[in-house]
Structure formats: C-alpha cells, structure tokens
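Submission checklist for the structure archive. All mandatory fields must be present; incomplete records are returned to the submitter.

[x] Identifier: Polyisoprenoid-binding protein YceI
[x] Organism: Paractinoplanes atraurantiacus
[x] Residue count: 174
[x] Sequence attached
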Amino acid sequence: MTTDVHTELVPGTYTIDPARSACRLTATHVFGLKPVAATMSLRGGTVTVAADPVASTASAMLEAQTFKSDDVRRDSDIKGKRFLDAERHPVIGFRSTRFHRDASGWRLTGVLRVRGHDSEVTLALETAEPSAGGCHFVATGVVDRVEAGVRTGRAIIARPVRITLDVYASASAA
C-alpha cells in the first residue's frame, strides 16, 4: 500500500481509463445467507494530484446499466426502476469535496449521486502509485444504499454495500 501520495505521484491532472478500470460491489442478502458480488463499468473521470496532497481532487462516473452479478434476473431488477433506475439515471457520479489524512491513512470524502440523490461517502485510499503513462489508484469504502437514494429492497439486500474502485488514469494532454 502506498501511503505517501505527495512523494510518489507527479502532480497533474489524470484522465480515468475506463477500459483498464473497474468498480466492484459486494453486499449480502438481508438474511446474510449469501454474499452478492457485482461489477459496474466506469464511464470516465479525472484525478488531479496537487503538489499539496490535501488539494488533490477526483471525480468518476459509473455506467448504471452495466451492473452485473452472477444472476441475470437480479441484474435486471437492480438496473430497473425500483433500484438504480438506470434508464432515467444512466450515470452514478462521484466528486470529491475533501482529501485528508487520518491515523489510518488517506481518505477521500465526496458526494455520490445515485438516482438524482446526493449523499456523502468517504473512501479509503489503499493504493496511489505511478503506472505506465499515469497513475493507479485503489479506493475502498462502504455506501449505505438507503442514504444513497436506493430505498427499496429491504428483503433482498442489506443496506451496506462495499465498493472497491480500481482505477488507472493517464496523464491528460496539456
């Protein structure tokens, strides 16, 4: 795990490469019988690494229609009107509002927009390292799906959804 963002990364603005990046989601049935793992594709976004790390920012967009688990019926339900309403809200967005360090490491706090509803979420930065032509970041956190605007499905899925963003970003052209 890279802990010193300031010395490891070259300051600048980096563009997320959707083809190399991934979002993984994990939740459990309310009864806790089986974990549910799913993925979603990133549409894009940017990461700005500032010379002073606390001034760094990030934004990302996920494609709601790309939700995919091991159950086609579940996927259809999650993308449907009761949950993500992907037809009317095709993008799930995140924009950072604060980057800070605490005793456990770097944290990225921001606004998550799901179904037109904004909620605050904090992600733990697990990895921030240079990669070929840019940077590689891994951030994890837990989203309370009800606070994020997905209020239905109490008997289907628990409230906390663990999210892992594995992002590769390339240096943006000046």
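[x] Structure attached
Curator remark: The two ends are 30 Å apart (CA to CA). The chain has one domain: 5-171.
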